[in-house]
Amino acid sequence: MKTNIGLLLTKRAHLNPEREAYVESDGSRRYTFKELNERSNRLANGLIENGLQKGDRVGLLLMNSVEFMESFFAVAKVGGVVVPLNWRLVADELEF
Predict the structure, then answer these.
(1) Which of 13, 29, 36, 51 could, after both became Cys, cross-link 24 (CB 3.0–4.6 A)?
(2) What is the pTM assigned to this prediction?
(3) Longest dimension (CA), the chain
């Protein structure tokens, strides 16, 4: 069976569902592997419904956050290619 990084989250969620996967630096938000996996699955399904296909490239212009992690894993689960973009860049620098 082939695997990708998105499936690694799924496997971890099955092995340690209640272990913390993400904790906000100020402690305001905490997510278990189960919660992170469920959230990334919902986003992956939404991406598929909106036409994302295996091999498509998806730019992520996000700060380091749980939203970045959810998006990263969701794109990977679909088979897309994550293109992380530096959120500190200005519009002219992001143009390509």
Answers:
(1) 29
(2) 0.89
(3) 44
